[in-house]
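ARCHIVE CARD
SHELF: 3
SLOT: left
DATA:
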Amino acid sequence: MHRSQIMLKEHQHAYLVSEAQRQGKSISQIVRELIDEHMARSRDLENDPFFDIIGMVEGDGEPVGRSIDYYVYGIDRTEDQE
């Protein structure tokens, strides 16, 4: 493990102390777990298949928003809009 020293605001330190006491863990363990949770959420967003469709459709000026169901779900709703 790597040792780090950080400066915390009073309310941040109070939160960590409270969580450590409540969970029966050290402040260091709480900080490590919070970082791990944040890293996992960030990774989940990077791997979200939704982001694979960004930029894959080129348009001719017609807003893609009108046909979003077609591009995302493959459902043609153009007749519903007429």
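SLOT: right
DATA:
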Amino acid sequence: MLRAANGSGFIRLTSTSSQNKINSIYDLELGLNKVYDNEKNRYNEQIIYYPLTRDSFLYGKARYIRTLAGEANTTFKHLIIWFKKNKTTGKYEPYTGNIPFRVDDRPDQYNGAEFNLVNTTGQQQSTQQTYPVGDKNQLTSYKKLTQNNFERKYLQQFFTALELVNKNQLSATQIVTARNKHKPVFYLIAVHSEEKLCRKDVTTLSDYCEDLGGFLNIPFKKIVIRENDFNVKKVTQTIQNLTPGSNDIVIFTYSGHGFSYREDEQNKFPQLALWHGDAKNKEFLRANTINLEEIYKMIVAKKARLNIVMGDCCNSYIEMRRQHIIPTKPGVFGPRDKAWNSRAVSDLFLNTRQSYLLAAAQKGELAGSHDWYGGFFTFYFLEAINNKLLDHQSDKPDWNDILKNTGEGALNRSRDYFCKDAVCGQHMISKTGN
């Protein structure tokens, strides 16, 4: 455990399975809390302080972030450690005795069990928990590390080989630097035309991804391509210049016009129409488009851990344009609930190594958009993710379920409007790869 003076820090927890003897390493964030700001509609980071009425005690909560090695965590989502003030130094140190008083009205409430180093046999009192005096799961001992402890053999119990980049003896500063350096980075490349609902799609998805990055306490880097930069050269240069690490997340989203060539049977995914206005001729058309699958291949070649490339655009033949649907039914979309299951967020975005290519419609079909929803595809993609993140009962969320629910939601919504046309509804298409 490394704990800074302000209460922030991190914990590495190592365990060995009694059944199969597999060693596991878990990464936890200490003292950081994500508090949702309703006015700004996003999460703000705060340092957790839990001083009690007896000012000689406080406790720190570490949130499970990810599994670094061994078996995935299915046991805990938080770890609580008590500290007691050293009267001589004035510093708080881990406490190994019984808590000499009852702890009532805890300042936080979570659904589901917590892994707790002290007092987990709580009694229920209305909506609050009381943690009685006791020694269950009590911290029994600890030791302070010195420079002599920072040897590779010892540190291999708590850090991966990738983090232990220095073959020589590591200092405490080097360990912290290495751990933070290998934190995942969340990249979003958002490309959109200037239609109002295309801007809405990108803004909604961008805000959602930024909230996810904040919730996970990882850096979020956004690149938006629009207006004068809305062209093939800018899009390809941006991808070429992207340098994600092997543990990073990359999402590419496009919202605008798309189409297919009738004679092109090889490309199932749409061509992205990266220009403003009408095409002057066939040569202009071909010079200013790029296929969504080509973008997917460029991004996957960067070898980030999780890649999602998505296009909310038509895949219809070139003479058909994306439809902006006039509202005829009441809107159903309100602010999304952010009471997320932290383990579900970690499983989907920090513990998945996969690449996904998604398009709103199959060849020959239109993609619908609506004043209340924006693009049906983008709306139901975020809706499907959010439903998984709110599920506190599920052991492990599955991206395949999310894709299935996205396609079904967009198809059912589009059928309300497209069934009078030659094409009934929009059918999402996808491709998955490692």
